[in-house]
Amino acid sequence: MFELLIVDDEKFVVDNLANTYPWEELGITSIHTAHSANEALERIQFDNIHVVITDIRMPGLSGLELIDQIRSISSKTKCILLSGHSDFSYAQQAVSSRAVAYLLKPVKEDELLQTVRTAIELIEAEWQEVISQQRTLYTLSEHLPQLRSALLNELIQGKYIPPLTLDKKLTMYHLPDKRELPFAMMFIRMEEGFSNYDDYSRSLLEFGITNISEEIFDEKFHLWQCKDIYDYLVFVITPKDPNFLSSHELSEQQARKMLEKLSLQLQDSVIQYLKGSISVLISDWGSFPEQIYPYYQNSISIIHKHPENLQGFFISSLHELPAAEFQPLRNLYEPPMLVHLLEAGRWNAAKDKFMLIIEELRVKKGYTYEYMQETALMLSSASLQTLHKQGLLLEQFDDIGLLKATDHETLISIDSLERWGSRIIDTLRDHAVKEAKGSHHTIIHKVHDFVQANLDNDVSLQSLADHVYLHPAYLSKIFKLETGEGVSDYIYRLRMEKASHLLSETNEKIHEISKKSGYVNPSHFSRVFKKYFNMTPDEYRSRDITGMG
């Protein structure tokens, strides 16, 4: 969970601190070492170091200079200074550099462990502050426009959001949260007058259009906007007066006329101030949130019937509602889509998604064959894209049946389509699992070989990760998944097995066995040996001698 870096130009000091202290008891899972300040700075650049223990006097940069540079790279890293000299000026500089502590060599084990524990507690306290409610609310307010836009995009794409979750998000994002609130949708397409702008300039123009819209509609309406997959600006318009359409003073037709007047004013303002034209569509009034998705689909269908135009249109949506059976398959296009689930290797979720599409097909009243073709082609395209992103060719899966997506046999019934689609997802999953297991087996084999060859040296999680070119956390997860044993537990077990063998089969002294088992400090070796066997090394050896006698 935490990573420690030990810096000293004397190798025996570094080895002693790295290998003889029970760092795991403090939640430290990775020990890094460096023999100069420059080497330490390289480590800081590439590893997530939480605590640094450094000597002060070293060739090149001093420890004090080192921690000043660490602060500029990683402000949350905590530093502890060690010195063989009791110099008050050093202590003063340590304070000014915000070091956690200034300790004198030779440092006592308990003192150093307690100091590192204090540093870790400081880190945890700082992160608690970061995730505190005050900071969360502050961050939320900074990102409200993006969060609101993302939520609206989810709704217009048909993603189901449970009512309680939606209500909480609307409240949190300071949006009108009254269920059944009347709404209309406004769509803005930037026309040819804006086509020559680069992406940055275009985004500024979109920002300008949004600001003009809010200014024009502000007296009577709230606007909630996003940019959809077609690069249209989509606005949900809700009245500030909750009784806007329920009173007898204003009919739905009059309310629509009001929106049309404001949207025409918006078109004129964009031409005057931004020197470009826009097309605008205003939907009918609907009920939030259940009609957001069908109104969006209907409006997009209408806009696509009107080609791009230099001057811009006002597009009417009245009397253009398509028949219900022409609505697209909702589950097929609702996020997360099949292609994203397959690419992410979320096989169970992909199978569940496919079954939702099949169930939707079963309740369609007409055009079933065409919907089945659409589903088959979508799954084929998603599967082919998944294969190609993995560096695989279709010919390697000639039995998967992708090219048979529109065969009569596949589309003879919804049941046959279900069997075909399920088989494709299962085939992709089985191949991915086989590949992962093969890769993981090779990694575990390399780890075993490295540990066996270096049991008396540095076999930390970091050194193993470096050996197999993986991040330590990822290696730890793979090892545990494949062997059922943690990396540190595995190394600990092998060291204890080697020590027990040497104690039983040789007359070597305890300190020699300690070193061969990977423990520089014999007293630390005795502690961990007793913890494992419930007896000291001497007691273990005496037991064997007594047993032989």
UniProtKB/TrEMBL annotation:
Gene3D superfamilies: 3.40.50.2300, Homeodomain-like. This is Response regulator. PROSITE patterns: HTH_ARAC_FAMILY_2 (PS01124), RESPONSE_REGULATORY (PS50110). Keywords: DNA-binding, Phosphoprotein, Transcription, Transcription regulation. Residues 3-120 form the Response regulatory domain. Residues 445-543 form the HTH araC/xylS-type domain. The modification 4-aspartylphosphate is found at residue 55. It comes from Paenibacillus agricola. SMART domains: HTH_ARAC, REC. InterPro entries: CheY-like_superfamily, Homeodomain-like_sf, HTH_AraC, Sig_transdc_resp-reg_receiver, Tscrpt_reg_AraC-type_HTH.
